[in-house]
Each structure stands twice: as structure tokens, then as C-alpha cells.
Amino acid sequence: MRTFTIDEHDLLNSLKSAIKTNIDAAVKAAKDAFPAWSSRSPQERSTIICKLADFIERNLDEFAKAESRDQGKTVTFAASLDIPRSVYNFRFFASSILHHTTDCTQMDHLNCMHYTVRTPVGVAGLISPWNLPLYLLTWKIAPAIACGNTVVAKPSEMTSVTAWMMCKLLKEAGVPPGVVNIVFGTGPRAGDALVCHPDVPIISFTGSTSTAQGIIERSAPFCKKMSLELGGKNPAIIFKDADLEECINTTVKSSFSNQGEICLCTSRIYVQTAIYDDFLQRFVDAAKTWKVGSPSDPSACMGALISEHHLTKVRNYVKKALAEGATVLCGEGVDTLDIPSENQGGYFMLPTVIIGLSEESTCMQEEIFGPVTCIVPFDTEEEVIDKANGVKFGLAATVWTKDVGRVHRVAKRLQTGLVWTNCWLIRDLNLPFGGMKASGLGREGAKDSYDFFTEVKTVTIKH
């Protein structure tokens, strides 16, 4: 009998080689499919994309249940937001591609005319996160292929089931082989191989700021086009004239929806001193009514967090806050988590509200990405703008006031890519989406995505 010793270094190298081989094969398939797909008319591409949307919609319940099992969100949330938005992403970009125009100018004194043309870039590398898996994957695939690109997409290794399910519908919808290629694997291996591939000239990434920094460094030698949608530390600013009933209901949702695992969730709430005590009591009472339970329970407001590691990370933020002198008013360590016996041991956490933190504290500066929000009083408009802008992130903000003049003043000065007033998460996909500072580079939306996934060329003709 012979004994073989497995060298971990050799095993790792073999794994990396296998993943690189898969990426190379996917990129080659996309590159080979590009000439034919890009030469199709926008109308032809639009028709196929709409068929894909129809097939996903017909299987909405199946997709929603799979998304819930894979990610931990409630089936209700997936069925009402994730999957319908995935369908809409395809339909929206299938429609918008039909309505873009190019520019033309004349220089009569030189007998010249100038015009622009837009052409697809080529093979697009798309990397999407685990919090809204199909929603954010389709938000990238839809504009990329609508513009005539082919894609190699890597969903998160933690939530890849619905991406695999979508793959089964591509052929049925008439998407030619090689146009959409899904690769599975971790970010450091599959993601890195995709980012560094010389035949992938454009990268769209949604995820953490730290990961994006690595992507920028790794892709820099290739001068790739980049779109980066990153983290947030989003403030809600609540002035004393706000409609408190609507404000509290909405802010509870903006703080704890999808277990707080949305980059647009509210994690800092600034409340004007005159209404601070009233708001605090009513907000905590409302947060306590949010039911944490089995994701399949239609009455549950929150399901489970994505993993044990992430649950530990979020809980550690609460521990840090306590160490810094904060007070937890409800949730983690204060209230008892009551969930069915079959869910015991799952990665569940109660909506947690913290007060008594300084602006420099960890929980006020870092993205927690869980069901935790911090409430802080303020006195003046000037003061709260400084506090809201006092973090490295700049994705979104909400402002609650009936003063129209104040809305315009505050919105203009907030260093965020989006500002909602007296609402949250209402989106028009025609308009730009993206953040400032460490929250990203570039914008996504009808025109912005079209500009990103195409190259512009100026043609001059002398006559």
C-alpha cells in the first residue's frame, strides 16, 4: 500500500489553475459571441431580453423561495422586491436601448459636419454581491447585453442559486450561446481572474469599498473602464416639522429591511432636539414590533443574516458601541429573540437601536450592514449637515421636513449621490444611481449605463 501526501500549496495552485481555466473558457465564449450579438439591431436584442424577463416572471414564486433559502431574507421580501425588480431591470433596459440618440454639429465655415456613434465595449466582467443577488446581477447584465456587449458574470459564491436558475432560461428566451456566461467561485480566485483578464476591458462591481480598492489596483495595468457601487453609511435627518408617523414607519423600514443588509439602509438617524425624546420612544416601540422569524413566515419582517461570520461581525459592532459608552435601547443583548424551534441556531438578530455615541465612534463611522441603527440629537441645520458629511462614505441620505426651502438647501450640501425627502427607496431607473467619496465611482441608470457600456466615437466629415 502506497501513502500519498497532499501538498496544500500544490492543491491551492491546482485549484487556482482550474478556476483560471474556467474564466478563460467563459471569456473566450463571450469574445467569440460578441461580433454576432453586437451586430444585431437594438430591436432584436430588446425582444430577446423581454422574453427572458417574461420567463423569470412566470417562475417568480420559485425564484423568490430560492432567493430566500439562499440569502436568509423573507420570501415575502424576495417576492415583492427582489424578483419583480429583476424582471423590471430586463424590461427597462430592453426598452431604454431603443430611445438613445447621438450628437451632431456643423461647422459651416469649414464645410464640416461632426457626429458621434456609440459602440459596445466588448466582453464585460460583472461582479455582484450577496445581499440582493438576482436583483443586482440583472441590474448589470441587462444594460450590458442591451448595449450589445457579451458578459462574464460572477455572482457571490454565497448566493448563486438564482443565477444558476436564470441560466436555464437563457436558451429558452433565445439568448445566443456565449452572450451571457455565469462563472461560480470566490472573489479572491474567480473574481480576481476575471478582473485581471486581458480580454475583459470593462468591469462593473458592486460590493465593499475594501474589495473595490483591490480591484482598482489589479485592473490598473489594463486601463479598464470601471463602475464601482460600494458601501454606505447613510444618514436620516429628521427636522422638528417632520410628519413623525410617516417618518417613523419609513425609517424603521429603511433601517431594518432585508436584515439591514442593503447598501442604502439607514444606519445613522439625526433627530432635532425639540422632538428627540418623542421620536426616540416611538421609534423604539416601532422597532420592537418588527417580527424576526422564519423566512418562510409571511408575518415575519426580517429573516436571517447571510452567515454566522457576518452575524458575529454585526454583533461585535454592538459590543464596540457598549465599550465606547453607548446604550442599547432595544434588540441585541436587551430583548429576547423568539423564533421557532426549527430555526434555533440560525443567524437571526433583533432590530437594534443604539444611542449615546460620539461622531468618531466605530458604529458611527463604519458600515455595519446589519439591523443596527444609531440615533443622535442635533440642534441646527448647519450642525447636522456637518455631522451627516463627517464619514468617508457618500451613498444616500434621507431628509424629513415640510420646509421646501430647507429641502433644497440641505440636499445641495449633502455629500451623497442620492437624497430622498420624506420617503425612502423610491427609484426612477432613468436617473443616475451611485455614490460619492468611498461609496463608489460612476453612475448607473438609463443614460449612465448606456454611456458606461458603450464607447463614444466622434466622426468628422468635410464636404
TrEMBL record:
Protein name: 2-aminomuconic semialdehyde dehydrogenase
Catalytic residues, chain numbering: E229
Keywords: Cytoplasm, NAD, Oxidoreductase
Source species taxonomy: Eukaryota, Metazoa, Chordata, Craniata, Vertebrata
UniProt cross-references to SUPFAM superfamilies, sorted A to Z: ALDH-like
Function: Catalyzes the NAD-dependent oxidation of 2-aminomuconic semialdehyde of the kynurenine metabolic pathway in L-tryptophan degradation.
Catalytic activity: 2-aminomuconate 6-semialdehyde + NAD(+) + H2O = (2Z,4E)-2-aminomuconate + NADH + 2 H(+)
Location of the Aldehyde dehydrogenase domain: 13-459
Homology family: Belongs to the aldehyde dehydrogenase family.
Leader sequence segment: none
Organism the protein comes from: Leptobrachium leishanense (Leishan spiny toad)
PROSITE patterns in UniProt: ALDEHYDE_DEHYDR_CYS, ALDEHYDE_DEHYDR_GLU
GO MF annotations in UniProt: aminomuconate-semialdehyde dehydrogenase activity; retinal dehydrogenase (NAD+) activity
The keyword Cytoplasm is annotated on this UniProt entry: yes
